[in-house]
Records
---
Amino acid sequence: AVVSTQSTGDVLAIDDLFDAKPAIMRAFQIAKACTKSKRSDGVGDDYIEFREFRFFLLSLRQYFEYWVAFDRTDTDDDKRISLEEFVAAKDMIETWVGSIGDLEGEFAKIDANGGGVILFDEFCDWAIKKSLDLEDDDN
């Protein structure tokens, strides 16, 4: 028997999708929590049920958009946005959310945990409040 050492990502050749795991996980968590499970065994809330699947797909599309914006801003690919990256991306970010007056103040608001960098979850919370919309996502 031949055993393949290729991963699913290698076989499918869609590394960008596998890099977007934070977006997939966030959409999954939101979708599975959107309704209370009707299952009596107590495990229904750990999975997406049929009636939650449409909401999962809608959430997935939205969080992929946030992931693309986050990734474009995170120029050193460390899965965090530094103040320097945020300031450098000012023009690009303003096309997505409108004018931002005080960049350092806005950065501090987004950095909810005060860690000095913006994490994807923090970015998403901000993007939702700002109605972030990429200029090229509907093509």
---
Amino acid sequence: MENVKEKLRLKNKQAALYCLKRVKRAEANLSRREGALDNVQTLLTQIQTAETDAMVLKALKGGTQALKFLRESEGLTLDNVESVMEELQEVVQEGEEVTNIISGNVFPGEEGEETEAELEKELALLVESQGDRYD
């Protein structure tokens, strides 16, 4: 632009016009090149995104296969888990029954024995009397 101003200062309109056209052409060329560069940068970003997406997908596939293998190799099927849990529940219930039988009264009519109902009644009276003291 300085050239254009210099030519105008020297009153050389033709040379100033020529210089101005060159400046405008250079600016247009620069603008086109910047647009092309933006396109290339956008393309590179899209390529990087696609590469990252491909890596994520590959990792997800690998994780899915590993999980599937572990479940199959260790018998982690829905039917198998349900079966084990039912068996566990049966074993726990059986253990509770054994405990109840063992802790049960083997000597009926022993002195001081109280029935369950009597114990419940006594407990209710205790709770009631405790409530009166704290109110």
